[in-house]
Here is the input.
Amino acid sequence: MKILFVCLGNICRSPVLEAVLRTQLERAGLDWQVASCGTGDWHLGQGADPRSCASALRRGYSLQTHRARQLAAADFVEHDWLLAADRSNLAELQRRRPAAATAQLSLVLPYVGILRPQEVPDPYYGGEAGFDAVIDLAEAFAQRVIAKARAT
Here is the structure.
């Protein structure tokens, strides 16, 4: 399985989702490929937001090696699922989807049956609690993905 998480700038939500799922999959002994990117190009090559890094580290996840990258046409064929953090990024994925795309598109949380909230809120303009909330949602997502994988 190859999953690509997508948010706006690839410095807050998608790298956290990537790091949490990768860590939890490794702990569960599942060999999946997990990556992240942004639809925008504002932060290309930059590390994750320091507030995301601090929040993740407090919970045992490292974002130290993350470097922001932008969505590419090849992502639509190189991954099984492109999972958007919110509706605006899902709409952007749908708009950019090439005719030859094979990847499935979904919002992150509904992909595993989490319907409230349906979106991973962007913590960029908020305080520490918003970054911690992203970790909470990422862990809930990872737990459901692993349970789903074990059931099949």
About this structure: The mean pLDDT is 97. Residues 17 and 138 are 5 Å apart (CA to CA). The longest helix spans residues 128-151.
